[in-house]
Each structure stands twice: as C-alpha cells, then as structure tokens.
Design goal:
InterPro entries: GntR_C, TF_FadR/GntR_C, Tscrpt_reg_HTH_GntR, WH-like_DNA-bd_sf, WH_DNA-bd_sf. This protein is mainly alpha-helical. It contains ten helices and four strands; from the N terminus they run H-H-H-E-E-E-H-H-H-H-H-H-H-E. It folds into two domains: 64 residues, Arc Repressor Mutant, subunit A; 173 residues, Four Helix Bundle (Hemerythrin (Met), subunit A) (Up-down Bundle), CATH 1.20.120.
C-alpha cells in the first residue's frame, strides 16, 4: 500500500473530482477503495477523506451496504441546476459589467478567441474536441463573471458549473453510460445542440458585456440557458438507448 503524506488528500480529491466531472467515472459508477487506490496510487486514508468531501460537494453518494458511488444524474436535477445557474450567473454578470475594468475586458476577448478556436475543432470532431471546447466555454463564462465582487456567488457558480459539466458529458457523449460511444441525436436535437454550442451566441454575449449593456447581456444569458434546457429535454424524451438519467 502506498505511504500517505500531507499532500495526498488534496491530490486524491483533485484527481477524483477531475474524473467525475469529465465523465471518466460515469454517474452511478462504484468508488471502491481498492480500485481507487490502484488507479491513483494513494492510500485508503486520503481516499476516504476525498470521498467524504466529494459527498459534501454532491459529486458522490454513500449508500448503506453499497459504499460510495458517483452521484447519479437526472432530468429534474439538471433542470434545477440550469435554473440556479441562470439566477447566480445573471447576478454576477450584472455586477461584473458594472465594475469590470480594461483588464476584465481584455480577458473576455482573449477567452472568446480561445472559444472560437475550440469551436472550429468541435465542428470537425465533436467527440474528440468536446472536452477542450468545454474548457474554453467555462473559461469564457468565467471571464465574463470575473469582475463581480461576491465571493459566495462565485463559489456557488463554480459548484453549479462542475455539476452541469458532468450532466453535459452524460447527456451528449455517453448514451447509456457508455463513455466509448458518442450519442446519436435526431435532427431536431442536433439543431438545438448547434444553437446551444454556437459561437455567434457567445459573441453577442461578449459584445453586450463590453458595451456595458447589462439588460441585453442578462437576457442573452437567460436565453443561452433556455437553449441548453431544450437540448436536455429533447435528448431525455428520445426513446431507446438514452443517457444514464434517473427519472
């Protein structure tokens, strides 16, 4: 058994969180200490601490006689998350627009450029480029909100973003919990998905923020959330081999 040291709990937590949020460890997957110890090369003590903290964050669940598992995803939860996102991010965006400086504006433009490059790659190969696009997407939205002053709201936003990212992964790329096979969507769902992933929508959001038009920017953000919800609902309603959602 590998010997533990003071850095191991944080390292184990970071590794587990990364693999849960990215979908490497799928919703409902068992989190057994022996398997995790071999996978990450750390002892049971830091893993127990990491699992406890992941449970507090809503990324893992502990069931009697079953141990820890990756927290499940559900249509009801993702709708709740998106509505919470709209409330929290709108408040942060309005405050950021009111207090952002030139450095804030420059960071938004730089992150939009990275999102543009990721969007080009996404059009070529969605399954291979999705993780990079999500990184660029999260960085862009983070840049938009960076000038906001509320530490608590930013903390809530980060937690919501982590949960939404694993819902995106389960929904769009891993039907039935199969991380090796990209989901096949029907034409109406693909049209909604293209709209939700559109660079043009993010460009309009950037332009409204840089113009200090808080009313327009907030409306565009809420519209963005509604497009995402429409994609979720379309996929969840599809019969057959759908994503690993709970009812």
């Amino acid at each position: 058994m590998p010997q533990s040291d003071p850095l191991e709990p944080e390292g184990a937590l970071a590794a587990l969180k990364r693999d849960i949020v990215s979908g490497v460890l799928a919703p409902g997957a068992p989190l057994r200490l022996m398997m995790l110890s071999k996978r990450y090369g750390v002892g049971y003590t830091p893993l127990r601490e990491a699992l406890s903290r992941l449970e507090e964050a809503g990324l893992a669940v502990l069931s009697p006689n079953r141990g820890y598992r990756v927290a499940p995803v559900s249509v009801a939860e993702l709708e709740d998350l998106e509505q919470a996102r709209a409330v929290v991010e709108t408040a942060l965006l309005e405050d950021a627009i009111a207090h952002g400086d030139l450095e804030w504006e420059s960071a938004i433009v730089a992150c939009h450029h990275q999102l543009s490059r990721a969007s080009t790659a996404l059009r070529r190969d969605r399954s291979a480029a999705f993780a990079s696009w999500m990184d660029a997407h999260d960085s862009f939205h983070g840049a938009l909100l960076a000038a906001a002053r509320s530490g608590w709201l930013k903390s809530f936003q980060r937690q919501i973003s982590e949960q939404l990212r694993r819902h995106h992964q389960a929904l769009l790329l891993a039907p039935g919990g199969d991380a090796e096979r990209e989901a096949e969507h029907d034409a109406p769902t693909l049209a909604l998905l293209e709209e939700a992933l559109s660079l043009a929508n993010h460009t309009r959001l950037m332009e409204a923020a840089l113009a200090r038009d808080a009313v327009c920017a907030a409306a565009l953000l809420r519209e963005h959330v509604q497009f995402t919800l429409a994609v979720y609902r379309s996929v969840a309603a599809r019969p057959g081999d759908g994503p690993p959602f709970q009812a």
